[in-house]
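Retry 2 of 3 after timeout on previous attempt. Resubmitting structure tokens to design endpoint.
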């Protein structure tokens, strides 16, 4: 396999997108690897996108928000960058042939462009965990059909990918969780937590949605499901372990009692670079680990009373892809509502639990979740249902 050279980044102006461009900048500057940027896509940050497209001499820059097309065009005037806007333009950009496409849009909104990339034969480095939780089976089925690689970017999944070998004799896998900003908080403190407090992650710097998901541990719940789909293992083969220092990212346990773990400083540039350069590695400028300085690593189990998210993930994963889609979409609505001050912090997991149990008991049960259209339909239904619960049901935990 030749070293990946041409890459595209969907979600370029976000936390993962920027880290990926840092990886590219460093690899290109130190001569370790030469990456060429083909397409960059973003949601609405025309200024940030234009600066990236100029710096990296991208072939194409696409903004999902069509009202920003004029701004993007004028900021890129005099360059050779082709400019486009709108959701279908994002999908089209993802279909341009590349060696590797980084899927780093946030939320299930990223699914369509990921499927388009896979269908175009592009290997995908996948950061966008929500798209795996909703459409993981579809992504992997389409990838297998076309001989396309799907490489994990999430640090825990990258760790397992690096530890698992050919998967033979694997007994189970563990993903670690820092525990987030409320690891030691009381239920009372969590009930009154503000979005600013919830978004202040102790170890990782991330986009706001991912940070809030880390505070509820819904991030770990999504990752639990993501690991299940990506590595095709059962719920009983997946464990979550709280590890506050975020040094061990994941572990693979084998039938002879061996456990292989991957360690590294908590910096997404390491797993991003691995997914971009695989099967090789490329040099990064991340902090090197100094275990003697760290002294010790701590571990504890998840307190499921304060953090019901993992229990909800196990339940959803047991019920299959439609249930995991419901869990994800209800969470997206709940997190937006929390950021907008429409519900409390504890209401996020409560709303997800309500949506999931309504789904498991109710009429939406028969909705299939196999094609892009079916997933999009279930996504819409879940969002409507969750907004309805949010608006009508006043016995909310945090209220
Ligand atoms: P972010 O909010 O910082 O960035 C999201 C990016 O997606 C932005 O560039 C935004 O403009 C773009 N975007 C949003 N909607 C779009 C659309 N319809 N079309 C095109 N672009 C669109 O988020 P992030 O923290 O970078 O996370 C991105 C994804 O990676 C998420 O799924 C997250 O769960 C996952 N992830 C993030 C981290 C992390 O450390 N940040 C770690 C692992 C996985
Ligand atoms: Mg992660």
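Retry 2 succeeded. Sequence:
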């Amino acid at each position: 396999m030749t070293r990946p050279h041409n890459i595209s980044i969907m979600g370029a102006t976000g936390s993962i997108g920027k880290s990926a461009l840092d990886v590219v900048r460093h690899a290109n500057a130190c001569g370790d690897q030469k990456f060429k940027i083909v397409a960059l896509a973003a949601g609405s940050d025309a200024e940030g996108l234009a600066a990236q497209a100029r710096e990296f001499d991208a072939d194409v820059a696409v903004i999902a928000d069509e009202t920003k097309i004029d701004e993007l065009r004028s900021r890129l005037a005099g360059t050779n960058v082709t400019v486009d806007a709108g959701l279908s333009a994002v999908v089209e950009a993802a279909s341009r042939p590349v060696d590797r496409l980084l899927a780093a849009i946030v939320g299930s909104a990223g699914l369509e462009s990921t499927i388009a990339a896979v269908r175009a034969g592009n290997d995908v480095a996948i950061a966008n965990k929500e798209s795996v939780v909703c459409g993981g089976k579809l992504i992997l089925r389409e990838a297998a059909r076309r001989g396309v690689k799907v490489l994990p970017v999430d640090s825990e999944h990258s760790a397992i990918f690096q530890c698992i070998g050919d998967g033979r004799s694997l007994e189970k896998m563990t993903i670690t969780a820092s525990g987030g900003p409320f690891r030691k908080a009381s239920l009372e403190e969590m009930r009154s937590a503000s979005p600013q407090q919830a978004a202040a992650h102790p170890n990782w710097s991330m986009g706001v949605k991912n940070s809030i998901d880390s505070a509820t541990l819904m991030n770990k719940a999504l990752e639990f499901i993501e690991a299940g789909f990506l590595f095709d293992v059962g719920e009983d083969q997946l464990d979550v372990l709280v590890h506050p220092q975020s040094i061990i990212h994941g572990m693979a346990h084998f039938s002879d009692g061996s456990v292989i773990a991957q360690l590294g400083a908590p910096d997404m540039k390491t797993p991003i670079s691995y997914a971009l350069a695989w099967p090789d590695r490329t040099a990064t400028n991340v902090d090197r680990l100094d275990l003697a300085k760290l002294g010790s690593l701590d571990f504890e189990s998840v307190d499921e009373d304060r953090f019901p998210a993992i229990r909800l993930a196990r339940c959803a994963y047991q019920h299959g892809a439609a249930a995991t889609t419901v869990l994800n979409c209800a969470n997206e609505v709940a997190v937006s509502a929390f950021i907008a001050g429409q519900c409390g912090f504890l209401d996020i997991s409560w709303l997800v639990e309500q949506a999931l149990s309504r789904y498991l008991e109710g009429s939406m049960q028969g909705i299939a979740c196999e094609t892009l259209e079916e997933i999009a339909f279930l996504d819409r239904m879940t969002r409507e249902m969750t907004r309805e619960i949010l608006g009508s049901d006043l016995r909310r935990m945090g209220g």
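Attempt log closed. The chain is about 50% helix and 15% strand.
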